[in-house]
Amino acid sequence: MRRYILTVMITILAMAGGAAASDWPVYKGNIFFTGNNDEITVKNNNLKWLFQATDTVYNPIISDGMIYFVDIKKNVYCLDEDSGRLKWKISLTELSACFTPGSKAAGKVKYPLVENNRLILTDNFLIYCLDKRSGEVLWARTGMRDEKELFEKGSDYNRTTPRWRPGAGGSWDPTKHSTTIVEGIYSDPVIKNGMLYYGTRNVFLSREIEQGHLKWDNKLVKSYSGFPSFYDNLIFTQSMDYLKNTFTLYCLNAESGVAVWSKMIAAPDRLFSPVVYGRRVYLAAGNSVHCFNIDDGAQVWSRDYGETITSNPSFTEREILFTTGNRRVIIITPADGAIASKIDLGDRSSPYFVTIRDQIYVASTFKKKVGGHDLSYASLRALRFGRKDPLWEYVPPFPGGAYQPAASGGIMFLPSGNYLYAVGTDYYPRIVDGGSAVYDPYNRIGNEKQPERKSTGDPGKERAGEKGDSALRQMKITVTDPQNAPIRATLEIKKWSKGKIAYSKRIAVDRPGQEISVPDSDDVEITADSDGYMPKKVIISRNDEDASISLEKIEKGKGIVVDNIHFEVNEAYLMKESLNILDRMVESLKRNGGTRLEIRGHTDSTGTRDHNMKLSMRRADAVRDYMIKNGISPERLLSKGLGPDYPVADNAIEAGRRKNRRTEFFILEK
Q: Is the separation of the CB atoms in 361 and 405 below 8 Å?
């Protein structure tokens, strides 16, 4: 409903800097709506920690080692991802009073979003931008219509209100006009390349994220629910015009807001955002999924699935997923919409899901009789496509219905009732609102004998001041081009321990044989990156006193093998140790916007050729999807599986087979 109120526009501005961050720019984290951005599977149902909030929690997201979520009382929480300890908490009810004195925040707070160090939240009427590290308010804006309407005497607004008063000569006089238009935010925001996109009932808007200033608006789009989605330089959003009783899918140019094409379909009961894959747009509406060509909106196919679709479509493993009837997960083929498989959850209703390759993690709600009362409980089940039995299941100990979970680093974060549960580890401290209870199923904590370290008396060995507390030592490093000439580069030094990062630091090197500090241990990763070159990672041992890293120049028509991209045995699941080299690849592509790649997966000759062709394709897809989820346009990336057909070493020996199992990046355009 349209509301006219006196202008109360308090904008709090601050500058936020810092290094590149892991983003969560849209509901469920990425354009495929998977609820996971790192491709790391969740191995088991062990509880890592739980956190008790003030009231019902929902919609957790993950960025740079922090968890952000909200509760039903409009509190915003920031927790440490590893321990579950509270970092900060703010009340949007109190914050909204700065904009509408004497009133409470209107409506439910939506899901959080993150780009760089900015955290975006919305309620029904306001968009808030916070510093994600501290919770400090940077700015806030109302869901206003175009301010130009206040200046135009003939606008729809000024034809229906007596508040417009001309000054001398008919010009607008600000002393006689102090009214603006505030409307409800119906289409929740998404973030793309530093811009916010969202809609009210009468206009769709774009604002820059730094200070919230308006860039453009489009009055053709009349938002009702859901949120936009994006692909490359396109924005997709729905419009529900109740006066004309029409429902339209719009494809807009992200830079200008101008409609590229629009498609009218029958009005659905619920609105879901389209998912884009392979230059086709898939929209769920009512009982049906509609498939459109991305270039002109021409319909490719439409299929009725017999009951109401009850979730946003999601894409993984070259298939589309959604729920129907609040109890079934339907998996379809994108080419024609044919059903590939179904998962019936029975009496476990209202399913939410996260997908990681061919694994789906389903959070649902079921009834359980406790003390003569029917209480709602959550269930989290890990399933694999084509297999009936679950891989594992977790049922929280406290009552509460399930909401949309999210996964990161092999841990699933499940909101249920007043609690957020971190599931999927062997053993770790369990935190209950800052408490110190311990969950230790294997009795490992406190029983591990730590080796004694004798003092070397070497002043070159120091204690680490970065993440972790490992002893450091000095070594020499040289980064060169293919002609062995030294080049300036950025190094990321990383050490893992028990599946966690024990040490991490980034430094610049600009001369041969430059001394650097590294952890005094084996299996230390050093990743080198330089503009115009493909990043490369090497593994050093405690005995290495120097190392040289040669970087391949990015050139059109050249194939470059990137070492240390590892997968689980005979699977397409990325391992954690692969992520830092892929992150450097993502950063390189963001700096070099014209580069296009074909990612080629290779296997050894073990097993059948058919199996290896499929495995190599799935692994190439996993790398491509990781890069897309982390901000690279799908238009710049292709993937291809070449199986065992192009060996570079002898498959008769293990060392040769190891070389043949590789990921190659072929430069299509520079």
A: yes
